[in-house]
Amino acid sequence: MTETSFIPGPETIRAFRDALGCFGTGVTVITTFSNKGPAAITANSFASVSLEPALVLWCLANASNRYETFANARHYAIHVMAEDQHELAQGFARDGLDFSHADWTIGLNGIPTLRRALARFDCRLAARHPAGDHQILVGEVLSATHRPGKGLMFKRGQYGGFTDLV
């Protein structure tokens, strides 16, 4: 097995992405309402920030074709996807305006909410911080919902499930 070392920079972006891909993450779909109707984006850059006050964050690429919609959203919902919601997450990764494949309803503050997610955090934008080629969006959690089940995972460019340790 060969170990690769490098200094991150423009000429090593692929190697840096490969190194980051070693860290498995959960998969979220963030929803809001846009001037074109309901909008969604799939993201794996989600983290808790604070318990008091209740804050979470996610990161939005500056180059995203959904940047204006999500960077300017005052309210949004972050859905933690269940293991069996792979196609839904992948669908929103491709097209954030096509809700025809989703089971959804209108939730808090008129935000589209996806049914059957493992968890949902209904948020109000609390802060936006520029960070390189992304924006860090910090949301104040106004309401949270969760249910039992296994989460959808993303690692090394692939979706998968979680295996319990025995």
Structure description:
By secondary structure, this protein is mainly beta. It is built from three helices and twelve strands, in the order αβββββαβαββββββ. The strands form three sheets. A seven-stranded antiparallel beta sheet has the order 3-2-6-9-10-5-4. It has a three-stranded antiparallel beta sheet with strand order 1-11-12, with no helix packed on it. Strands 7-8 form a two-stranded antiparallel ribbon. The longest helix is centred in the middle third of the chain and has 9 residues. It is globular and about 50 Å long. The model has no long low-confidence stretch (mean pLDDT 93).
List segments where confidence is low: pLDDT < 50 over at least 5 consecutive residues. Answer: none
Secondary structure category? mainly beta
Oligomer: single chain
Sheet with the most strands: spatial strand order: 3-2-6-9-10-5-4
- Overall mean pLDDT stands at 93
What is the H/E string?
A: HEEEEEHEHEEEEEE
Characterize the biggest β-sheet.
7 strands, antiparallel
Question: Mind sketching the topology for me?
Answer:
Elements: H1 13-20, E1 25-26, E2 28-34, E3 37-43, E4 46-50, E5 55-61, H2 67-71, E6 75-80, H3 86-94, E7 104-106, E8 112-114, E9 119-131, E10 134-146, E11 153-155, E12 158-160
Antiparallel strand pairs: 1-11, 2-3, 2-6, 4-5, 5-10, 6-9, 7-8, 9-10, 11-12
